Automatic annotation (TrEMBL):
Cited PROSITE patterns: UPF0034
Cofactor: FMN
Keywords (A to Z) from UniProt: Flavoprotein, FMN, mRNA processing, NAD, Oxidoreductase, tRNA processing
PANTHER family in UniProt: TRNA-DIHYDROURIDINE SYNTHASE, TRNA-DIHYDROURIDINE(20A_20B) SYNTHASE [NAD(P)+]-LIKE
Taxonomic placement: Eukaryota, Fungi, Dikarya, Ascomycota, Saccharomycotina
UniProt entry tagged with the keyword Oxidoreductase: yes
Catalytic activity from the UniProt record: a 5,6-dihydrouridine in mRNA + NADP(+) = a uridine in mRNA + NADPH + H(+); a 5,6-dihydrouridine in mRNA + NAD(+) = a uridine in mRNA + NADH + H(+)
Span list, region Disordered: 1-34
UniProt protein name: DUS-like FMN-binding domain-containing protein
Length: 366
């Protein structure tokens, strides 16, 4: 294992001091963050990384999982430069306080984070953006989600066949907010790559700041290799001031290097690779034990649905637990059972205890 000694985007939090409180967009007792890291200018991050001849490392929007605790783990400790929220449904976000509370929270340590929305029209996207823009470093439009139910509502990958609709959404955000909102459009590819190139050129002309390309067709499974050729063609086709991010098949730091070499992309986005190893961009070939302790701490402090936390810990421990142990951990029904299971096998250090988040791979196994 080779560990890259690249510092995280901001200083890690002192484990001996309390974590900052969570912030939601409807909480009258909190104000939007006004400085680092939430309001980091991510276009400056791209420009600086380009000058340094390196890509930005980015955590993809992952359904249910890129909530506040997992974002903090990756950015504050393991070299991820930018994280995304899970895709949020713009119509629900703008209409329902409950949806906003359930889908989005942040804190003074969070970010830079991009709030990604699924939207079928400019009105929904603009209204959702207006609510969240003070709390994030950018907003993303999802044109890649393959879920049938979302596609039936005009959201996600179905938009790859509706370029005029996507253009209207991008122009609508740009006309409403000017350059005060950084806008990313995440796309998939077409069987005819000329269509993908034309799609990207049109959304760049409409005002997108970032184009993230998932190099697979709408209905292709993840077992099909992502098309790096498609991403390369998009990078070559759009103006240099529009940043292009490559998404697909990044599981190791070496994968990120190869993707950039082939595509010329300005950033590399990982999803499944980070679920299995949130430290991959820091050069770890498998999850270090300290990541488990850190994630547990953030989940307990900021709240996380039990099933989400359970799934993430099972995924993260592929190189730490045996196959049977991971199967047993899946049988836990609630937080108490999962905590008892971990404490029976490990000395699970809590924040503030001596040795918290220091162990690499033996995990204090009993």
């Amino acid at each position: 294992m080779t560990v890259q000694h690249k510092p995280p985007a901001t200083v890690t939090h002192d484990s001996s001091t309390p974590l900052p409180r969570a912030i939601t967009v409807d909480d009258p007792e909190t104000l939007p963050p006004t400085g680092e890291p939430c309001k980091t200018n991510i276009l400056s991050l791209f420009a600086n990384a380009r000058s340094a001849n390196r890509p930005l490392y980015i955590a993809a929007p992952m359904v249910r999982y890129t909530r506040l605790p997992f974002r903090l783990l990756m950015q504050r400790h393991f070299a991820v430069d930018i994280t995304y929220t899970p895709m949020m449904i713009a119509r629900e976000f703008k209409n329902s306080k409950y949806a906003r509370m359930a889908d989005f929270s942040t804190c003074d340590l969070d970010g830079p984070v991009v709030a990604q929305f699924g939207a079928p029209n400019a009105e929904d996207l603009i209204e959702a953006t207006d609510i969240v823009k003070a709390y994030v470093a950018g907003v993303g439009l999802n044109c890649g989600c393959p879920i049938k139910e979302q596609n039936q509502e005009g959201i996600g990958a179905v938009l790859m066949g509706r370029i005029e609709t996507v253009e209207s959404m991008v122009r609508g955000v740009r006309e409403k907010f000017g350059r005060s909102v950084v806008l990313d459009v995440k796309i998939r590819i077409h069987a005819d790559l000329d269509r993908t190139v034309e799609f990207a050129k049109r959304i760049a002309a409409a005002g997108a700041d970032i184009i993230t390309v998932h190099g697979r067709l709408h209905k292709q499974r993840n077992s099909v290799p992502a098309s790096l050729e498609a991403i390369r063609r998009v990078r070559e086709a759009v103006p240099r001031e529009v940043y292009v991010v490559a998404n697909g098949d990044c599981f190791l730091a070496a994968d990120a290097k190869k993707i950039v070499q082939v595509t010329g992309a300005d950033g590399v986005m990982a999803a499944r690779g980070l679920l299995q190893n949130p430290a991959l961009f820091a050069g770890y070939e498998r999850t270090p034990w300290k990541a488990v302790e850190l994630f547990w701490s953030y989940a307990m402090e900021y709240g996380s649905p039990f099933k989400n936390t359970q799934y993430l810990i099972v995924e993260m421990t592929q190189g730490l637990l045996t196959k049977q142990e991971r199967a047993d951990l899946r049988l836990a029904k609630n937080y108490q059972q999962m905590e008892e299971w971990l404490d029976a096998r490990f000395i699970l250090k809590r924040r503030g205890e001596v040795g918290f988040a220091e162990k690499e791979f033996d995990g204090y196994r009993k």
